[in-house]
From TrEMBL:
GO terms for biological process: lipopolysaccharide biosynthetic process. Keywords: Transferase. Residues 182-337 form the Glycosyl transferase family domain. GO terms for molecular function: glycosyltransferase activity. This is Group 1 glycosyl transferase. The keyword Transferase applies. The keyword Transferase applies. It holds the Pfam family Glycos_transf_1. CDD domains: GT4_PimA-like. InterPro entries: Glyco_trans_1.
Length: 371
């Protein structure tokens, strides 16, 4: 039996793709008889096969102050404190594989292995994404063909990596709300009942998710404008994004919320279109989630989004002003049929559901163990 640690410092208090994936992956694989899986998380209750480790959370005032004194971010302080709490479990239980997504935690684990001559292997899920070479990792999970090919072209050995996309909890059949059900749910969520709704889910920032670009593009649309709802974790850039939205769109057409992952599905159900404004993703978990609800997805045109959305996506160059606004106008003024929604759902269910991908994850773990 292969003993595996899955550490994630933000799990339990941070709403990002890393945390969502780690939670779902653990739940999907924990009953596999050929492996013994232990989840290490930054908050929440410890339970069978799940251990909560002490750490200074990234938004804790102590982490922020220590970060200022050391020239680091609160996020790095959280990762470092979480890592030190993990060490005693590594010493006691001697895992065969540590399966991680966070590059900072991975670097710390690599240095510790080098210093202590411990034997665990490092399995890196490349969701950031990071680019080759990968001298510190024993095995790499590549999420898309483009990232895999990039690594192969750079000389990373075939036997050191696998193409295994993120897995998702996707219902086998898509359920579309009736018009009355949509209005009722929007009312419960305190959202406009009849106004077209644009949804974006991700970190409320400028540098990666580019929420400021999305706001400006919606502001460029003619009246009446759609309602823009941003869901996600807030960080140091969030206040600037929120102020920009209120300035350009007003409180009647714009809102930012942070909700639990279990609540996000309701927002997908009532949206008219989904936008991801980032120019770079490892996969873009939110795109699969939106497609699983049948939503038209508007994205920057590059290899990763082409892989995820295929023929069902709406693509443009989001480095250009008015590029997204034209795409939004096109989608909202040419609503598609329920049949197209079902096709979107079918596309991602067949490629990204745990029912389809679970055997590939087990195979990847065994390849890592014997690499």
């Amino acid at each position: 039996m292969i003993k595996i640690f899955m550490p994630c410092s933000g799990l339990g208090h941070v709403k990002r793709g890393f945390e969502s994936f780690t939670r779902e992956c653990f739940d999907a694989l924990v009953d596999e008889p050929s492996i013994k899986l232990t989840l290490f998380k930054g908050s929440g209750e410890s339970r069978e096969n799940e251990v909560t480790l002490w750490n200074l959370r990234r938004n804790d005032w102590r982490a922020i102050q220590i970060g200022k004194l050391t020239g680091r971010t609160g996020y790095i302080i959280e990762t470092a404190s979480f890592f030190f709490s993990l060490l005693k479990h590594i010493y006691r239980e001697n895992p065969d594989i540590i399966y991680f997504s966070d590059i900072n935690l991975g670097n710390a684990l690599w240095h510790w292995r080098r210093l202590t001559k411990t034997k665990y292997k490092l399995l890196f899920s490349n969701g950031s994404p990071q680019y080759p070479p990968f001298p510190r990792w024993d095995y790499i999970q590549q999420l898309t063909p483009a990232l895999l090919q990039l690594s192969l072209d750079a000389g990373v050995a075939t036997e050191k990596q696998s193409l295994v996309p993120y897995g998702f909890n996707i219902a086998p059949q898509l359920t579309i709300l009736t018009s009355l059900e949509r209005k009722t749910l929007r009312s419960q969520l305190r959202l406009p009942e009849d106004q077209p709704l644009i949804l974006s889910v991700g970190l409320i920032d400028k540098s990666h998710k580019r929420m400021d670009y999305l706001i400006r593009e919606v502001a460029n649309l003619p009246e009446p404008k759609p309602y823009l709802l941003l869901l996600g974790q807030k960080d140091t850039e969030s206040s600037e994004v929120i102020n920009l939205g209120l300035e350009l769109l007003g409180a009647d057409n714009f809102q930012v919320r942070s909700v639990e992952q279990s609540e996000v599905d309701d927002y997908y159900k009532v949206a008219d279109a989904f936008v991801l404004a980032s120019l770079r993703e490892g996969l873009g978990r939110v795109l699969v989630e939106a497609m699983a609800h049948g939503l038209p997805c508007l994205v920057h045109d590059y290899a990763i989004t082409q892989f995820v959305l295929g023929e069902y996506g709406y693509f443009a160059d989001f480095q250009l002003e008015n590029s997204l606004s034209k795409l939004i106008y096109q989608v909202l003024n040419n609503p598609d049929s329920k049949y197209e929604s079902y096709l979107r759902h079918k596309s991602v269910y067949e490629r990204f559901s745990w029912e389809q991908l679970r055997p590939k994850y087990i195979d990847m773990i065994h390849k890592c163990a014997t690499s």
